[in-house]
Amino acid sequence: MALIDIVKVDSNDNEFVIKYPSEDLRMGTQVVVNTSQTAFFVKGGKIFDQYESGTHTIKTENIPLLNKLINLPFGGNSPFQAEVWFVNLITKLDLKWGTPTPIQLEDPKYGVIVPVRAYGQYGFKISEPRLFIETLVGNMKIFTADKIDEYFKGKVLSSLTSLISAKLISDNVSVLEINSLLDDLSNHALNKLNSEFSKFGIELVNFYFISVNIPESDPSIIKLKEAKDIAAKIKILGRDIYQMDRSFDVLDNAAKNEGGLAGNLMGAGLGLGIGAGIGNQIGNVSNNLNTSIPPQPPTISFYAIINNQQEGPFDLNTIIQKLSAGMLTKDSLVWKAGMASWEPLINQKEMTHLFTPPPFNP
């Protein structure tokens, strides 16, 4: 193969590392590094020199480590082999992200778990090209934006649940109001995710939430809106007046029930005083029932990752059944209301007894 006189590559906005296709160089070869590029001389898998934008002639004076890289037995035009790698330093702004399945968030105001979908856009640039090559690229001849997006998409999506939850809790904002926080949420996510990207020489220059969607027909959303309406009425009327208003609603419904005791009495013209007496009697009966029937423990529901998909919610009995059927293991990731992130099933106190061996009795 003929010796190379000029080493140069023209990268596009999707190529971030390109290895020059030939290793046959000679003393005096010119290396042309375009604006927004950095070039590296590599020999035996080791980086020896780095060059910024401009035209550089391969000479021992211009490449300080060249004497360690090669031997020069033939004088000034000696041939030698070395790799030249070019790193593209442009900013890539048009990468999209989105949740393939809804993420489960607990509303910090009303305690209702709702499914949420989110999507947006982000941009990045290579901030430390040498670190980028050493940690991500390896010996691949071309490294594209698609590979970067593929590598970090899992990290982005796995962080969204805790990022959004933490922001809602810190600002005490309901999921129903989340779209008013998109700018703050974007800045919060940018700061948190940048620490992960920087480990590989990459800088996130922006991270946007374009939309956070909540399915209007989902039962949990209906329940959440009802809770919000009740809270609004209590705030406007006061708790005592709201409870009185609810009592009147109960009496009105009872009066409309022609077969009921209250309806018969109202129909006989006994008036509101009797109705109030009935209300008191009903309240007394309710109080007696409340004292005689012990409160039921709250139902614990888990969401689980099965075959890389989020499923659930499942109660404890269903979880045990899926363990027996081999659909779940002690290392399967689960989440329930109040948890900041997904954790292995064996870490849940409700499940510990399933994985604890019985005492040995010889």
Indicate the percent of residues in helices: 25-40%
List unreliable stretches of 5+ residues.
248-252, 259-279, 288-293
The outline comes out as: elongated
What is the CATH architecture descriptor of the largest domain?
2-Layer Sandwich
Q: What is the number of independent domains?
A: 4
Instruction: Give the CATH H-level superfamily of the largest domain.
Output: Band 7 domain
Structural class: alpha+beta
Order of helices and strands: EEEEEEEHEEEEEHEHHEHHHHEEHEE
Give the C-alpha Rg: 33 Å
Number of helices: 9
CATH top-level class of the largest domain: Alpha Beta
Q: Could you tell me the number of beta strands? A: 18
Distance from first to last alpha carbon: 78 Å
Write down the CATH topology of the largest domain.
Tetrahydropterin Synthase, Chain A
Q: Approximately how much beta-strand content do the residues carry? A: 25-35%
Strand order of the largest sheet: 6-5-9-2-13
In round numbers, the mean pLDDT is: 76
Structure characteristics:
362 residues, alpha+beta, Tetrahydropterin Synthase, Chain A, four-stranded antiparallel beta sheet, 9 helices
